[in-house]
Amino acid sequence: MAYFKDEAELQQILGQLYDRVKSDAQIAPRICEGKIVIQFRYDDPKGIVTIDAAHPPTQPGAYCDVTWGETSLKPDVEMSMKADVAHQFWHGKVNLMAALTRRQIIAKGPIPKILKLLPAVEPVYTMYPKLLREIGREDLALT
Asked: Does residue 141 belong to any structural domain of this protein?
C-alpha cells in the first residue's frame, strides 16, 4: 500500500515539511551552505519539488525557496525515487548510500554535494513524524 493516495496528498504533506525546513533557523542555513539546487522527482504518486539553496530566497522568513512542479531552474542534483522511499527517508529509515547502490534512489549530479547535506537534514527525521501527528496523520508516522 502506498503512503500517499495521490499527488495532491504528497504535495500537501511533504509541502508542509519542506515549508518548515526552509524556515528553520537550525536546519536551513546549513543546507544553504551547500549552495545547491536539488530537485526531487517522485513516482507513485508523481511529484516534483525543487529546493533552491543556491540563490537568495524570495519569501520573507525563508532561507531557501521550494517550488512544486516543473521549473525553469536547472538543478545541480536530481534525485528520483518512489514517494514511499522519500517518506521512509524523512523518517530516517533509509540509508542514502545503500538506497543509491540498490537504485531505490537514482541521483544525477555531484553526489558528494548531497552527502555533505546529510548531517544538516538529520533533525528532519524527528520533525517529520511530529508533523504527521500534528496534522492528524498518525497513520503515516513510522516512529
From this structure: no
